[in-house]
């Protein structure tokens, strides 16, 4: 009985040892890639499925974008220069006026009377001067014939000089009265749009009274700020010639094009920005004072640049690069530099422009590894893919 039990225990030990050796041997074989659980295949990763695009050669405009405010070149707040009552208002609110157009007439009766008085005084002075000049001429003839003394001639010369000075003073006073009288006719100092009118016929006005405002709408400017980092390229563009600026007043309106007209002489040290302005033709009054617009400034044009999709560029601790597809369907890492990014595309350096750049699936690609094009799927290609045997 004891002998039988010993034989059973020995058999169990041998079986457990054989199973342990088999499991260890299988694990080592699977770990070093010599065999798969089915005993077939080498366990290699399949090639990544990718899409590729060809770089484009084109001119790329380097654009700076900012939010701007429409500002008129000139806005004038009209005030009378004398105290009087409004006799007539010749304009309406919101009306467009031309430079020199009559807008307000003030009561000018007193001013015209003063002007007439000054002009009459000038006429009297001219008559007096003419009489004295005739007397002086006769005195010179009489002195030549020794009928009068030299002192009499000198006295008449002094009277002529005095009358001439009096005439000049009264003529200046008449001109001053004419200027004062002109203040009673208020004309448009420039062409523009009239604002609200604050007075009516019969209103008493004085120099502190605001009559209305005139705002110039054509041309008009847009003021905005750009980061100080864009200042060198902005100034360089100005030196090359006219800098084009585009303003978008609304989603439903076409953009308006103008030219850069002003770059401030100081960078704001707190905000790190520079103030600039652009001037636009505004015959259709698309831009309105105080309106917010989106602006674009073309500071440079990259000629014949290599353009690829932004999603093809990979950036990590090692730098910026892309994967390109080789003829043998392997991936090659190419370092690039993003020169300018605009939307979904970017202009880069480091590519010749004839490569096939990998876009989708690049996250699964390793340098030198084989890849398979998504366009080849289902066409019987890509036979180099290793698939584990299910049996």
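-> sequence recovered:
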């Amino acid at each position: 009985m004891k002998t039988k039990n010993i034989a059973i225990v020995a058999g169990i030990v041998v079986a457990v040892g054989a199973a342990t050796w088999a499991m260890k041997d299988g694990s080592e074989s699977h770990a070093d890639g010599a065999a798969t659980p089915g005993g077939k295949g080498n366990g290699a990763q399949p090639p990544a499925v990718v899409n590729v695009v060809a770089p484009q050669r084109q001119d790329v405009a380097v654009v700076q974008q900012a939010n701007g405010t429409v500002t008129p070149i000139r806005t004038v707040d009209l005030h009378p220069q004398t105290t009087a009552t409004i006799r007539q208002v010749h304009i309406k609110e919101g009306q467009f006026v031309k430079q020199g157009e009559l807008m307000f007439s003030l009561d000018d009766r007193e001013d015209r009377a003063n002007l007439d008085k000054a002009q009459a005084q000038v006429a009297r002075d001219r008559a007096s001067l003419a009489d004295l000049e005739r007397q002086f001429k006769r005195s010179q003839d009489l002195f030549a014939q020794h009928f009068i003394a030299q002192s009499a001639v000198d006295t008449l010369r002094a009277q002529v000089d005095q009358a001439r000075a009096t005439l000049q003073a009264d003529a200046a006073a008449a001109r001053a009265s004419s200027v004062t009288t002109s203040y009673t006719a208020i004309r448009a100092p420039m062409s523009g749009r009239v604002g609200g009118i604050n007075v009516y016929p019969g209103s008493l006005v004085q120099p502190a009274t605001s009559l209305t405002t005139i705002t110039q709408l054509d041309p008009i400017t847009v003021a905005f700020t750009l980061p100080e980092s864009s200042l060198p390229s902005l100034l360089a563009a100005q030196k090359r010639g006219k800098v084009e600026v585009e303003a978008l007043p609304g989603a439903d309106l076409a953009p308006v094009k103008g030219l850069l007209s002003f770059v401030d002489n100081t960078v704001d040290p707190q905000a790190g920005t520079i103030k600039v302005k652009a001037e636009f033709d505004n015959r259709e009054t698309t831009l309105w004072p105080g309106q917010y617009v989106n602006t674009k400034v073309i500071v440079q044009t990259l000629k014949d640049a290599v353009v690829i999709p932004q999603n093809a560029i990979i950036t990590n601790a090692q730098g910026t690069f892309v994967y390109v597809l080789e003829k043998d369907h392997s991936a090659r890492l190419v370092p690039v530099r993003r020169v300018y990014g605009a939307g979904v595309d970017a202009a880069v350096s480091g590519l010749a422009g004839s490569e096939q750049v990998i876009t989708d699936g690049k996250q699964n690609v390793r340098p030198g590894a084989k890849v398979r094009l998504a366009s080849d799927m289902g066409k019987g290609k890509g036979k180099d893919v290793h698939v584990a045997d299910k049996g």
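The two ends are 47 Å apart (CA to CA).
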